[in-house]
Amino acid sequence: MEKQSRLKKDRRRIVIPMHNKDLKPGTLLGIIADLGLTKEEFTDLL
C-alpha cells in the first residue's frame, strides 16, 4: 500500500509520494514546480 501526503494550494492538489528511499531529482523538481516555487524559495523554507 502506497502512502501519499496531499498539500492543497490554490484549489489544486499536489501529491507528494512517501518512499523509503530518496526522491529522484526530477521528481522533487516537479513537486517544487507544482507548488509554484523556485528551488531557491523551496530551500529557504527548509
Task: Report on the architecture of this protein.
This protein is of the alpha+beta class. The protein has one domain (4-45). The chain contains 2 helices and 2 strands; from the N terminus they run E-E-H-H. The protein has helices at 25-34, 39-45, and strands spanning 4-9, 12-17. A two-stranded antiparallel ribbon has the order 1-2. A hairpin with a 2-residue loop joins strand 1 (4-9) and strand 2 (12-17).
Strand-helix topology:
Blueprint: E1 4-9, E2 12-17, H1 25-34, H2 39-45
Antiparallel strand pairs: 1-2
Q: Give the overall pLDDT as a whole number.
A: 76
Please give the order of strands in the largest beta sheet: 1-2
Supply the number of helical segments.
2
Calculate the terminal CA-CA distance, rounded to whole Å.
Answer: 28 Å
**Any idea what the radius of gyration is?**
11 Å
Strand tally, please?
2
- H/E element string? EEHH
Beta-strand content estimate:
25-35%
Class derived from helix and strand content: alpha+beta
Helix content: 25-40%
**Domains (count):** 1
State the shape: globular
Runs with pLDDT <50, length 5+? none
Largest sheet: 2 strands, antiparallel
